[in-house]
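User: Reviewer 2 asked us to show a designed sequence for the structure in our supplementary figure. I'm pasting the structure tokens here. Could you produce the per-position amino acids so we can include them in the response letter?
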């Protein structure tokens, strides 16, 4: 069994975990997440801790135990604290605005890009150049941030585009005059 899979997940106050066969439902102050886990995993709640165990260890089930434990830990953290990704628009004339659940981006194309936020994701825009995406599902928040980033990926010569706030762009020098 993997080392990560062996570690119990502490359940904070206000979070409730329901287990039906291979369907796990986690409810907390921020919302509710339901996810199906592999059927060969035994999941149990003991003393405010969520424990993942394997009835018959095989190489595949050992690997799945670590994955299952990580997914469950993300679910518990999501309903209690939530997840956020920050994006930054770099470039002259690049801006974003939020109109209800539609994120409108002006990125130097001939038309503005209108992106409908998926259910469960909220966005906020600061100074028209910083977008913060928030939600309880870690996978959905990351996927939405990646989709928004792909509208105009940062390019290495001038650094223009949409980048994660903590991302550094490796810059290239470009053409130089030869004398």
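Assistant: Here is a per-position design you can include in the supplement:
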């Amino acid at each position: 069994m993997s080392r990560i899979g062996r570690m119990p997940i502490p359940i904070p106050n206000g979070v409730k975990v329901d287990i039906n066969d291979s369907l796990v439902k986690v409810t907390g102050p921020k919302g509710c997440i339901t996810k199906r886990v592999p059927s060969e995993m035994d999941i149990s709640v003991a003393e405010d801790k969520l424990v993942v165990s394997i009835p018959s260890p095989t190489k595949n089930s050992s690997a799945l135990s670590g994955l299952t434990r990580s997914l469950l830990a993300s679910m518990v953290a999501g309903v209690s604290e939530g997840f956020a990704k920050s994006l930054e628009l770099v470039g002259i004339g690049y801006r974003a605005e939020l109109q209800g659940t539609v994120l409108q981006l002006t990125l130097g194309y001939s038309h503005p890009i209108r992106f409908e936020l998926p259910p469960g994701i909220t966005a906020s825009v600061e100074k028209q150049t910083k977008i913060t995406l928030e939600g309880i599902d870690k996978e959905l928040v990351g996927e939405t941030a990646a989709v928004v980033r792909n509208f105009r990926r940062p390019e290495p010569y001038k650094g223009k585009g949409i980048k994660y706030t903590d991302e550094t762009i490796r810059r290239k020098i470009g053409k130089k005059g030869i004398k």
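For the response letter, you might also mention the following. The mean pLDDT is 87. The first helix runs from residue 3 to 6.
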